[in-house]
Design brief:
The chain has 5 helices and 8 strands. The chain has 164 residues and is of the alpha/beta class. The chain has a single domain, classed as P-loop containing nucleotide triphosphate hydrolases (Rossmann fold), CATH 3.40.50. The mean pLDDT is 92. The structure holds adenosine-5'-triphosphate (ATP) and magnesium ion (MG).
Length: 164
Amino acid sequence: MKSFEYLSQSEKETLRLGAELAPYLRWGSIVCLFGDLGSGKTTFTKGIAQGLKINQKKVNSPTFVLLNIYAGKKPLYHFDLYRMEETGEILNIGYEEFLYGDGVAVVEWADKLGDLMPKEYMSVTFVHQDNNNRLIQFEPRGKHYVGMLKKMSQSRGGMKSKIK
Ligand SMILES: Nc1ncnc2c1ncn2[C@@H]1O[C@H](COP(=O)(O)OP(=O)(O)OP(=O)(O)O)[C@@H](O)[C@H]1O
Ligand SMILES: [Mg+2]
């Protein structure tokens, strides 16, 4: 499966989609989020937190730190790289321990990773259409994520979605 796209028509739907991805995430899984300001990246991350049984109210944006850690059975490492000017800033905080760590990593503004972009991850791109409509595109990078997307999309049954 190359990609899967979903038209979210409300904040709640985006939250639900994040929560639906969560059960498929394993220790060391990486989700890279792309898309403009206000397109829904943090909302989706809150949904992932919810799905991991972490209090989603703790998940915030904008943030003045590059990484927030939320404790849980599977810890959530939430990077928000909007304000990062150079990758040296995350090298300094030992980002590898978190990106490839003992939890689930979610990276907002993942395009800023540049050369540090992992080889395998779930890419999720948010396209602000109008009002409350957001096109959310999943593109798996690597075998593990291809399998993950397949399982997730199969379990969605008759919901509004398009599989390419
Ligand atoms: N379908 C939708 N999905 C997600 N958010 C929506 C949707 N419709 C409206 N919204 C609103 O859009 C905003 C999305 O904000 P959010 O913080 O999730 O974006 P973001 O991509 O993280 O932005 P930033 O780049 O600033 O971190 C919220 O105010 C939310 O209520
Ligand atoms: Mg955000």
